[in-house]
């Protein structure tokens, strides 16, 4: 079983003792919660690409992002429109097949550091 499937299996083991192996993250969920994973590849112009995996298991909604040698896990937060995720110094905001990556250290009104769209 690869690491991604192991992660999801860990999500599905709600209430059961979870043992994470090296390189894995296990998050126990409430009884009855079901996990869904969606993988997306975004092209972001001169910024390059962003690989995203969305882990939805209400009430938990997380995403992992990989870009420019960085990897992070971000959590879904309140958004007026679309889905907004926050983690570290980044905001990842998606709507339909578009997404914007913001670096919050650049200021609240700064333009996104990457404007992206999904690719097949």
TrEMBL record:
Pfam families: MliC. Gene3D superfamilies: 2.40.128.200. The keyword Oxidoreductase does not apply. Keywords: Lipoprotein, Membrane, Palmitate, Signal. It comes from the Bacteria. Residues 42-103 form the C-type lysozyme inhibitor domain. Residues 1-22 form the signal peptide. This is Membrane-bound inhibitor of C-type lysozyme. It comes from Ancylobacter aquaticus.
């Amino acid at each position: 079983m690869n690491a991604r499937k192991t992660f999801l299996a860990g999500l599905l083991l709600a209430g059961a003792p979870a043992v994470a192996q090296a390189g894995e993250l296990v998050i126990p969920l409430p009884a009855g919660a079901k996990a869904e994973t969606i993988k997306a590849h975004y092209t972001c112009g001169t910024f390059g690409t962003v690989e995203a995996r969305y882990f939805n298991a209400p009430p938990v909604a997380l995403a992992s992002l990989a870009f420019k040698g960085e990897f992070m896990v971000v959590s879904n937060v309140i958004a007026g429109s679309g889905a907004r995720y926050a983690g570290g110094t980044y905001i990842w905001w998606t709507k339909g097949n578009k997404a914007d990556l913001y670096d919050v250290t650049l200021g609240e009104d700064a333009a996104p550091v990457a404007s992206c769209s999904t690719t097949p």
